[in-house]
Specification:
Blueprint lengths: L1 H23 L7 H27 L5 H20 L6 H24 L6
Helix pairs in contact: 1-2, 1-4, 3-4
């Protein structure tokens, strides 16, 4: 399950980078297929993450860093919604992409470091 979750996370980041390139570079919006696949990937990454969280909790492992990842994922999704909104201005898109990118970087750092006593 860990490898599937990692693959899904990589795909989410790749789609985010592609959509960011379209908005910033070509000044276009992503096709409908990309938007639908993004929703499917978010759903799958949440389900696989919840499955792994249940396994960690049953083993009494420290999971505070997981809650920080969940908060960052919510921030990344909400910033992406604003950034890739067709009615958003160029500056709103840039700020949304910056916030989402920072959240994704934080998620990746937490995934590799896994601090035991985060809070």
């Amino acid at each position: 399950m860990k490898h599937l979750h990692t693959l899904l996370a990589l795909l989410v980041i790749v789609l985010f980078l592609y959509q960011s390139y379209l908005v910033l570079g070509a000044n276009r919006r992503a096709p409908r297929v990309i938007k639908i696949s993004n929703h499917i990937l978010y759903a799958l990454i949440i389900v696989s993450g919840a499955w792994m969280l249940m396994q960690l909790m049953s083993a009494n492992a420290p999971v505070q860093w997981v809650f920080a990842k969940i908060i960052l994922l919510v921030a990344a999704i909400s910033a992406s919604i604003k950034a890739f909104n067709p009615n958003a201005t160029q500056s709103q898109s840039k700020v949304g992409i910056l916030i989402a990118a920072a959240a994704y970087i934080g998620i990746v750092i937490l995934a590799y470091v896994k601090p035991e006593n985060l809070f």
